[in-house]
Structures are given as C-alpha cells and as structure tokens.
Write a structure and sequence with these properties.
This protein has about 525 residues and is of the alpha/beta class. It contains nine helices and 44 strands. The strands form six sheets. It has a 22-stranded parallel sheet that branches. α7 packs parallel to α9.
C-alpha cells in the first residue's frame, strides 16, 4: 500500500512539473524564453537554434497560428513531448518529420508543400531514419494544395504524398488526420501500429498502404480516386493495399482491417475519373488477417481480395457498386499467386456480387449473400454514424466532413497563361454566391496578422461558407490585370462582389467584426434576389 502511495505521489509530482512552451510567428522573438508572455517565434527557428534542449519529457510545445517553416526533429523521451496547435490556432508548416525517436505526440498541424519550395514525396513523415517507438500523429491536415482545378494527369501523378509512417520501431499511431489532394495517402511501414479515424480524400494512387505485421487499420474514410490507365497512370489504384515491405522475402501476419468506408467517387462531374480496387491484398502469404465490417462502393472486380491467405477471417463486409452501367462488380475472393498454400480461412456474413473461394478447399463459408442497394445504403449510414461518434463529424484541423465533397474556403486567383484574365474570378461570377477577394503579399507580416485575427475568426468563417473566396497575391499580377479587376486596394484587403461582379464593399485590413457584418449583408442581398 505504501509503495502504491509513493508511486502515485511521484506520478503527480512529475505531472506538476510539466511545462508548456509557446511559439508564435507573429509576436514571438528568437531570444525569448518561450513563455506565454514571451513566446519563441517559429518551430523551425526553435529546432535550428537548439531551443528544444529546454523541453523535457512531459512538456508541451503550443504553436500559435502562422507559418512555422520546415521542421525536422529527432530524439528519445521517457515521457511524451507534445507538439500541438494552441487552442483555436492553425499552425502551418511546409514539411514535418521526426526522423527517429520515441514518445512524441504531434497534434493539430497543417502541413502542405504549397507553403514552401517544391519538393517530392511525403509531407509528414516519421520513424524512417532510425529506431523509433510510440510516435503519435493526430488531428493533422496534410495536403499538397487546396485548389486542383487546373490540374491534369501530370500534376496528379507528380503530387506530394501525404503521411509516411516509416519502417522503424513499433507502437506508432496515425489518428484522425485529413489527407487531401495527394499521390499516395498514408503509408504504414512499422509493425504493431495503428491507423484509425483518418480521411484520405482526392488521391491518384493508393489510399492506405499496409506493409508490416500487426497493423490495425480501422474507421478510415477513403474516397475520390483520380487518373486512370487511360490517362497514362500505370499504378493499380487501391483504397487499401497490402504487400510485403521487402517484397518477396516472407509473410505478412496478424493485420486487422476493420470498419473502413470506401467510396470510389462522389461526383460524376469529377475530372480525370478512375476506378479503384477496394481492399486488394495480392502479395502474400497473408497469415492471420481479419477483414471485417468494411463498406466498399467501387467499380472494380476486387472488393475484398486476399491472396495466398492462411487462417484469415473475412466477415460482415459489404461490396457494392453504384455504377450499374459498368460491367465490373466487386467480389470477395481468396486468390493465389502460388506463393503459399491457401488454407484455414473463414468467410462469413458478407454481401457482394460473387464469392470466389475455390482456392481454399477447406474454407469455412456461410451466410454470404448477394448485395443490394438497400443493404449498402443501410450499412454505409451505420458505419458513418459509428465513425462520427468516435472521432467527430469533421476533422478538426481541416474543418471538412468525413463524407461529402469539400468546399475549400479560399482558392488561388492567378493570372491565366496568356496573362489576360484571372480565371478564378471569371469562373466564380454568376453562380448565385457573393465573391470575396482577399488581396495579400506573401512576404509581408501584415498578411499573417490579418489572416490570424480576421480570416480565422469563427463568425467570418461562418459567413464565408456562403460565398466564394479567392486569394490573390498582388505581386503576381500585372498592372493591367489589377486595373481590369479593380484590385487597387493596399493589401491585406478584402473586396466583396455581388454574384454578377458588381463591387459592394472594399476595405484594407478590416476587423473580423466589420468583415463578418459585410459578408452577412452581401449574403442577405443574394437571398433577397439581388445580384
């Protein structure tokens, strides 16, 4: 009893000594002590200057809104060090990596290659440079760029990938992140690790890649695949794919794929449409896998396919296609590439168009039935409700729903190839919504301050949901274009247009209260039929 009391006292004492350090690109200074009153400036500056030496196990680094640079860290901790968005903040980084280490928790970061100089590969990466354990990445928003309206097949195939969990260590977690507009979504390369509650939306290769023993992939939403073989993309796209990390040198064991939701495409207006396989696990032998409760809506043969499977369970999955004009109908299959005996498998309670289980002569198969639209609709609604209950209806850093097309608040307004138009403005007119132009200069600190204090305000964001927002870097425009579109205000500035393009309000550096009021008035005019 005395030992227990002493242990509790020591734990309490450790927690009481935990500190929080603050990092603020707008108000911080490099020489500050990192307190709330005197914060450090950017996370990159803290790391590059050796400032992390002041942070001890159990401490938290709270990041304010603003650009924190390109950050690469490493280190082993006896208790978790947390790097997280401060309450209500949206810290931005162009790249983030923990090369090796233990007990790091990363929460609420927005990471995008669009914030810095171009580079290739994943934008958020960890545990790929050395021994690592218990690295947790959660609630992050990772995207190549928000506006892909001008992308063709070449741009989609060259896009950055999202999150890579490296090959070192065990016990890592990727949870409740939103991966958007990427080549590959999430790659899992460490044993006994978890990928749960994430959304991978708008990608051109594979949604989630599973490559090591003991991985758990559950409650993820994977949707909207781009670019097909006809467009020149030779990747065989999968929502969830499994293969040996070292191809051809062993087995993959004890992987669980549970209650994931897959939707091939949410709009027939999508450019560069493509088909994708659902759960396609072709490179075994696969031993002790469990694939259960997944709901898949795709136009491909492979709904759930496990090749060279031994002692695996496939149960309670739904494989459906809404694209009834296509010949492809997803099945449940126990396939083989003759890399190992197919034996000891159980396939029960699934719905699909067909079941190809003949490669396992002793398979236990029962209660497998033809799928219907009603079954799919019901099971998808139930699964989405379960996921939303566990992780929330939206992913915090992104603010996007788990299912349903995203509406990006700000698209980029750039000059057309001939320099004669700003295409984003022209496309936004006469669409029944006010058009909001945000003029800025990327190199000016005033833009950072304005975005934090005005554009990130809750009331402003509520009104922006009913408008089309266009960001315009005035340094990228000719004098003639500025004159043509009436962009003479000194940035940072806001111009509000009626749906027909008539200017109704123009202000340099308005407050959040002023902007919210004017946006609400513009919305009211549209609702009354003003245009």
């Amino acid at each position: 009893m005395r030992a227990c009391l002493l242990a509790c006292v020591f734990v309490l004492a450790a927690s009481l000594h935990a500190e929080t350090f603050f990092v603020d690109p707008l108000n911080g200074k490099a020489g500050n002590p990192g307190t709330k009153a005197a914060p450090w400036r950017t996370l990159q500056e803290v790391v590059d200057s050796g400032g992390l030496r002041a942070v001890k196990p159990g401490d938290t680094i709270a990041l304010k809104s603003g650009f924190h640079g390109r950050v690469v860290i490493a280190g082993d901790n006896t208790d978790f060090i947390t790097i997280a968005a401060d309450e209500g903040a949206r810290p931005r980084l162009s790249y983030f990596e923990i090369t090796q280490g233990s007990k790091w928790r990363v929460r609420g970061l927005t990471v995008s290659a669009s914030f810095g100089e171009p580079y290739e590969g994943a934008m958020l990466k960890f545990a790929d440079g050395g021994a690592s354990s218990e690295i947790i990445v959660e609630d992050c928003f990772v995207y190549s760029t928000l506006d892909t309206s001008k992308w063709g097949a070449k741009e989609w195939m060259a896009a950055n990938s999202g999150i890579t969990m490296g090959r070192h260590g065990k016990g890592h977690v990727v949870r409740n992140c939103y991966v958007f507009n990427t080549r590959f979504g999430i790659a899992l390369c460490a044993e006994n690790s978890i990928c749960e509650g994430n959304v991978v939306s708008h990608f051109s290769a594979d949604g989630i890649r599973v490559t090591r023993d003991g991985q758990l992939v559950q409650h993820n939403v994977i949707r909207n695949i781009y670019v097909s073989d006809d467009d020149g993309d030779k990747n065989h796209d999968d929502a969830i794919q499994c293969f040996l990390f070292n191809v051809g040198t062993g087995t993959v064991r004890n992987v669980t794929i549970r209650e994931n939701l897959v939707v091939m495409r949410e709009s027939e207006d999508q450019k560069l449409k493509a088909n994708m396989q659902g759960i396609g696990f072709f490179d075994g032998p696969l031993i002790g896998f469990t694939v259960e409760g997944n709901v898949i809506n795709t136009s491909h043969w492979h709904g759930v396919s496990l090749f060279d499977a031994q002692d695996c369970t496939i149960r309670n999955n739904v494989c459906y296609t809404q694209w009834q004009a296509e010949k492809l109908r997803p099945w449940v299959m126990l396939g083989t590439k003759n890399k190992g005996e197919v034996k000891g498998n159980t396939v029960t309670g699934n719905y699909a168009y067909t079941f190809d289980l003949k490669n396992d002569k002793g398979v236990t198969a029962r209660d497998n039935n033809p799928v219907t639209e009603e079954i799919h609709t019901k099971r998808q609604a139930e699964l989405l409700a379960l996921i939303e209950k566990k992780y929330g209806k939206t992913v915090p850093a992104a603010g996007f729903k788990r299912l349903g097309l995203e509406r990006v608040k700000w698209i980029e307004g750039t000059a057309s190839a001939d320099g004669q138009r700003i295409e984003a403005i022209d496309a936004a007119l006469n669409q029944g919504r006010p058009v909001v132009l945000y003029l800025y200069k990327a190199t000016e600190k005033a833009a950072e301050k304005f975005e934090r204090e005005t554009l990130e305000d809750a009331a402003v964001n509520e009104q922006l949901d009913h408008a089309t927002g266009i960001r315009i870097n005035v340094d990228d425009l000719s004098r003639d274009l500025k004159k043509k579109y009436g962009l003479g205000s000194k940035p940072p500035a806001i111009i509000i247009l009626k749906p027909d393009g008539t200017p109704v309000w123009d202000a340099a550096g308005p407050t959040a209260k002023q902007l919210a009021k004017q946006l609400q008035a513009a919305r009211g005019e549209v609702d009354k039929g003003g245009g």
